[in-house]
Amino acid sequence: MSEPLFQVKQLEAGYGEIRVLWGIDLEVNQGEIVCLIGSNGAGKTTLLRTVSGLLQPTAGSINVEGQQLAGASSRQVLTGGIAHVPEGRRLFRTMTVRDNLMMGAYLRKKDRSVVDDLDRVMTMFPRLAERAHQDASTLSGGEQQMCAIGRGIMSRPKLLMIDELSLGLAPRAVELLSESLIEINNSGIAILLVEQDVMTALDLAHRGYVIDRGKISFAATSEELRQEPAVREAYIGAA
Question: What span, in angstroms and rounded, lies between the C-alpha atoms of 202 and 205?
Fold first, then answer.
């Protein structure tokens, strides 16, 4: 069996003396969408911040196609093929939509491939093309999320990590973004999706993990998680 594209083993991290992650094991295979679900404070965002180099792990490994990234800088993680779309989008205010997208390619050689990828993002998200020269901070919430995801794509990642895709967005915006994620995944980019809307996450993902108080409590296919009584009771509710 081939090695997973992305794998963390026994990962531990926290803030000062407060440990948040306790021996996390998680993997994403080439071509997969994997979701990570859990309640507020369970450690979802901390895990993504640790993987992306914003927070240093205290133990464990982070591996992308054989490259060890535990303890690497954010720049090294991005160069290694992992792009992080943070919770709240975090676009650059006063900069245009186009310039925000181009920031995703700042580590790449500025050649024709960057222009081609920009065209690809604009085609995938026509609203961004219409607003290319508009201040990104004036976009709607859904459009800002499109821009943040597009910025991630511009780095040509092997793995795109998205923290809270649907946070604060209208149902139609979530539907459009979900369709775009499937398109992105079909283009060859694996996705690790953190999402509090459990039904949206399980509808999109091939597999999922449930994190509870900094530990993985369940790992299974999306359908198996959907049918798991403990998961239904905690995150979905009775049918």
Answer: 5
Give the range of the structural domain holding residue 60, as residue numbers without chain letter: 6-87+159-236
Q: How much is the pLDDT for 169?
A: 85
Write the single-letter amino acid at 99: D
Q: Is residue 142 part of a domain?
A: no
How many domains are there within the chain? 1
Kindly state the percentage of the chain with pLDDT values over 70. 98
Residue 181 has pLDDT above 90, yes or no: yes
With respect to residue 112, please indicate whether it lies within any of the assigned structural domains: no
Query: Is residue 53 within 8 Å of residue 211, measured between CB atoms?
Result: no
pTM above 0.90, yes or no: yes
User: Residue 71 — left, alpha, or beta (φ > 0 → left; ψ -120 to 50 → alpha)?
Assistant: left
